Amino acid sequence: MYSITVSENNNPEFGAIPIFRIVPDKSLPADIFVKINEKYIRFKITGDNLPSAKYDYFISKNVESLYAKESDISKFFDWITQVKKEAVEDIVAEVGEDNREVAESYQNLKETVVDVFTAEELSDEKVLDLQAQAADFIEKVSKFKTTINSIAKLTRFSQNVADHSLNVANLSVFFSLVLGNNHQLVLENIYMGGIFHDYGKAKMDHEILENPTHPRYEKLLKSHPEVGVEAIAESKVIPPQVNTIIVQHHECYDGSGYPRGLRGEEIYKLSRIISMANEMDTILSKYPDSIEDGYRAGIKILSEDGGKLFDPEMAPHCAKALEHAIFGEGAS
After folding, report:
1. Are residues 251 and 260 in contact, defined by beta-carbon separation less than 8 angstroms?
2. Residue 91 falls inside a structural domain
């Protein structure tokens, strides 16, 4: 659990700040509060940050808003605007000024993903908004070859569930495009599959998921694909192809995966792509100080897998394309 301090005065006016607008791991501009039993309890003070692990905890508990004193609300929204602007500039520095619209779309998508994930039940309205943003994003990144290569560079160190979801979605679209799957609807489905692939995990007990020695850890972990599909089953707007991607994203080409032990062509083609993207981002997360070293390690695994985890025709091709996108023409 988190450490909290009860405010000396629970009566001042407070304003809600949607959690999807709050940026984790950044120094906060003012005190921030949680609301428990109609009381506002100071959670973090000015200058502290909201750690990514706690951010994911709030998402798993469907906490949609944190709070600040009304006198500090403008500070928060100025801070949110500035941090978002800095994030866009960081991405533009990586992918080039020509891809500024892609960078802006990416940041908007990240907010929307968190907004959707924090809801106790999926709202079709929010999912439709997410689908529309994803479709617009995909249309942008699939127009030009330079932009297609740049989408791989949008993958950054995963700090929280939203980062990981978008990293997997971005890499999945990149792999799809280099494999010749350029139909807009296919790309939209795989992007949504990437976003929702760990939705089940996002709703699970993070104290167990972060503790591999817990007696329930393995069972809980291996149930998350099916839990995710069950959790979104009520949505009328998520295509069945996305459900298939979610439930199969941990199946392995040699049949050693879960939850059903499917093998080879039994595994849906888009699930095979998501599987590679998911593994790549997991590897990247182990190299927080050198994303290039992370890419090298991931590319090596894809290249040398030989049909164990991944489709043996897809994986080497995707590895070569990723190597070219990240390291350029002279890569070997």
Report:
1. yes
2. no
The residue count for the chain: 332
Residue 285 belongs to domain spanning: 98-327
pLDDT digits (tens, 9 = 90+) for 116-147: 998 888 889 999 999 999 998 888 877 776 67
CB 197 within 8 A of CB 212: no
Task: Name the domain count of the chain.
Answer: 2
Task: For residue 184, give the CATH number of its domain.
Answer: 1.10.3210.10
Which one of 2-16, 90-104, 179-193 scores highest in mean pLDDT?
179-193
Strand ranges in the chain using DSSP code E only, listed in sequence order: 5-6, 14-18, 32-36, 39-44, 65-69
pLDDT at 157: 63
pTM: 0.88
- 233 and 161 in one domain? yes
Residue 173: closest CA among 93, 101, 273, 257: 273
- Domain assignment present for residue 49? The answer is yes
